[in-house]
């Protein structure tokens, strides 16, 4: 029984690690490739979570829904709606510099959170949305459904990883990194700075929406507490910085490493005396902060730093005879 419990604990750890890996890949597109400081991850995560939940649940008098769509279509809808929200935010805020963009995105994320809490007809307010279906729910029941969901989550992670890696190596990705490194030079070379930044922000927000949808389907229940900035925004930034900004493999490694530390420390903090137990979340944040300091002291660019792809020049053949 102990081995069984340990196995399913590992399954749960990897499921949430995969969801955080998606969030890190999304943030890596925005910050690692485009230099866009998005501090409102929780807002777009929440848009995706509630969109997928509403699209896939049965009819209810407590909230909008009743569409009963398959889960993959719900996730596509989550990506589209989160991307549209990102487009609306980008059209307003993308011209702002990094610090001001961070402040604006925090404010917009808080607006989205207040909409989720107060619009009962849409989200059922603080009572949340329940009976959210899982993908491939007919293949297994009980705890084994977690194993099936684990495979589904990491399949999505693989697809996003391949897509983001192709974007990184593409001419679009090279132009984006040029804008990130030297905006003035990129503009002088004829690059449309605003267009590239809007595209980057929208793509990242769409992936964040998918991560939110997967989280909703995993827990089968969704409430406003799921969009806590501490667990969604702050922790994802720590993961990306520790893993390596600008490197997709580093983003995944950072997500798994920091989430494992966060989960394992919960086991130990729960064993603290009662007078310390109420401060357990702050102790865990202290440990995560100390780990980040240690990592950045030894690895300034993260565990797996960014490595630009080699430039390939077209080989020229011999000159033709004249």
What does this structure look like?
This protein has helices at residues 2-33, 41-56, 71-93, 98-118, 120-123, 144-169, 171-181, 183-188, 193-219, 229-243, 248-269, 274-277, 280-298; strands spanning 129-130, 221-222. The protein is globular and about 55 Å long. The chain is mostly helical and 322 residues long. The chain has a domain at 15-228. It has 13 helices and two strands; from the N terminus they run H-H-H-H-H-E-H-H-H-H-E-H-H-H-H. Helix 3 packs antiparallel against helix 9, helix 6 packs across helix 7 and helix 11 packs antiparallel against helix 13 (280-298).
What spatial form do the alpha-carbon principal axes imply? Answer: globular
What distance separates the N and C termini? 82 Å
Query: Sheet bearing the most strands, described?
Result: 2 strands, antiparallel
Tally of contiguous helical segments: 13
Query: Largest sheet, order of strands side by side?
Result: 1-2
Radius of gyration: 21 Å
Helix and strand pattern: HHHHHEHHHHEHHHH
Structural class comes to: mainly alpha
Stretches where pLDDT is under 50 for at least 5 consecutive residues are none
Helix content: over 70%
Strand content: under 5%
